Amino acid sequence: MAKESKVEKEIAGMALELKKREGAQDELLKLTRELVRECSIAVKLVHSWDYDGAGGQVGKAKALLAKIRKLEAGFEHIVSQSYQEYAEISILMAIVKKKESPTHRELGIPFESFMTGLLDCIGELRRQMLEELRRGKKKEANYYFETMSRMYEATIPLRFSNSILPNFRKKQDVARMQVESARSELLRSG
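RESULT FIELD:
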């Protein structure tokens, strides 16, 4: 029987490494799905005025985020969506509680995911504004409109290509439309 060559040994080692990476990726995919689910439930609870329940879901999401952070190296493309969802609910929770929004550093996520999550949050703020209008609370509706408008305006100077800041321009355009629609809805409400 022929002696195993260096290349054959190297390929065998690579196969072990790839198997290890595959296991980490599988675990990461599971965790990111769970994180997105927890954030989605939290958003629904916010819109149902159950801030305590939403806070509990955000706590679960934060615990999942800590697990994800340990596995993310080399898989940044997989985790970015879940980080975006975590940013969105974290910002929304701060705003509905009338606190200052957290930064990407405070959340422990990359700024790219934070920025797209912030832009997605504008749509959730519009929902809150519309609900306040429906309830006859114009002052609260104005609070949400002013907040979403300021958030959008803060992003206007950021004009980078999709290769530098993926999905940002598209989400920025959607946020602009959300703000414009909210302005019209607020004016129509009298």
